Each structure stands twice: as C-alpha cells, then as structure tokens.
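User: Predict the structure for this protein chain, please.
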Amino acid sequence: MPYDHARLPIQTFPSTSSHTPGSAISSTRSLSATYAPPDWPGERPRSWRRDFKFKSGISSLLFRSKSVSRQPNASTDSARLNLASVLRHDKSVILDLRRGKHLLTIRALDRPVVANDLMQPSTNPPTLFMRLYHPRLPWYIDIMPSTNGSYVTLEDVFMTICQFLAGPIRREDYYNDELDAEDREELKQAWESRCNNRKERMEGVKRVDFLREKYMFQGLSRGKNGMWQLHTGKAQSSPGILHVIGSGGPH
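Assistant: Here is the predicted structure, written as structure tokens:
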C-alpha cells in the first residue's frame, strides 16, 4: 500500500512551539510556505479503515460502518494459526513503539536480543501474510516476508510495525470530518510528548501519535475477519524499572 511521505513545512495553528505538528504534516502536492489549509475539515481519508473512530467510549460504538477487509484463506486466517509465544498478548516483550525495534527487550532472555532470536516464524504453521489493526489506528498494518521470503518472521512483525508507525501522517489524516479540534489537540499533545529535540519536532506528527499515551507494545491476539489485533498500553517508570500498564481493551 503506497503512502505519501512528502512533508509540508507550514504552521497550521497557533502554538508556543516554533514547530507544530502541522508544520510537517505530509501532503500529496507541494505547497508554498505561506499556504494555510482552509478552516473547514476535509473528507474522510480513503486509506482509513471504514470502522475507525478516534474517540473512545460509548460514542465510538455508534454509527460504525461495516468493516471491510480482505477475506482470509486457510494459510493466513488468524483463527487457524498459533502465535509465537513472544507475540502473545501477555507482555512478553518491552518495546516503546515511538522509539523503534532496536530497543526491543524479550523478558524471557537474560541478555540483549540478537538477530537470530527474531528469525523464527511468527506463527505455527508459518504464514505468508498478517494483517493487523488497532482501535486507535485508522490504518491496517500489513506484514509480509522480507527477511527470508518464505514466511513472516518475528523480525518482519516488529520491523514492519515500527517502520509503519514511524511514518509521517498526511494533511488529510489531520484535517478531516472525523477529527474535531479536541481530537487534533490530543494528537498535538502526543507529538509534543514524543519529541525530545528540534529535529524530531520538525518531522511532525507521525502515525504512532494516534496511539496517544498507549505506545508500549503488548502483543497480538486473534481478531476479526482472520486478522490480528495489536494491543498497546501505557508506560509507567520507576527507578531502574519500566512497567507496562493498561487494559487489554480496545481503548
């Protein structure tokens, strides 16, 4: 699935920071630095899942469109596959999805993760395709073999998730009928919380910011229509220890 990564160097709303999320939202066309988007929101992005709702709670369950996804077959249907233990929804790993795969920690190991640890199949039997969804993400994450070409490995899963979430959002992902000013403020706060320096701020809002405060990987589970649900939670730090908290629920 192609994604447009051209960044839009504009400031789209007032901020105390010199680099707002809107200053680097990507666009499908180049615009001058003096351009500002209209005050009214745009249409719902076609790349979004039809059943996606930004807000959590009861309101998110109302008026949902029927989910549309590719039909599973026997070799890719999550109902017919067993996950590798590392990927199960039991907090087997520590991974901040805002920072990347290189910081992955597997709790069962008493040493740093090495390449060979991630070469095993992600499922049993091995599969050629996995489609992931997360209630807070408006996009699917499609995973295919890249390391060996024969089946999806643990490396493929972690690499694809992190690379996808590290991608910048497009302007229509930020300004559309589905998001109101409050929603955009939440994305802005997630962006500000994630960024540690000017370079990161200049990169603008990324897909991972849609997770807001729930950016710690908590595994996968069998989902609807043969897909896999991605679970994430909040992080709570204490001296020398990183704890992952949060419910296994959708929001």
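The first strand starts at residue 82 and ends at 83.
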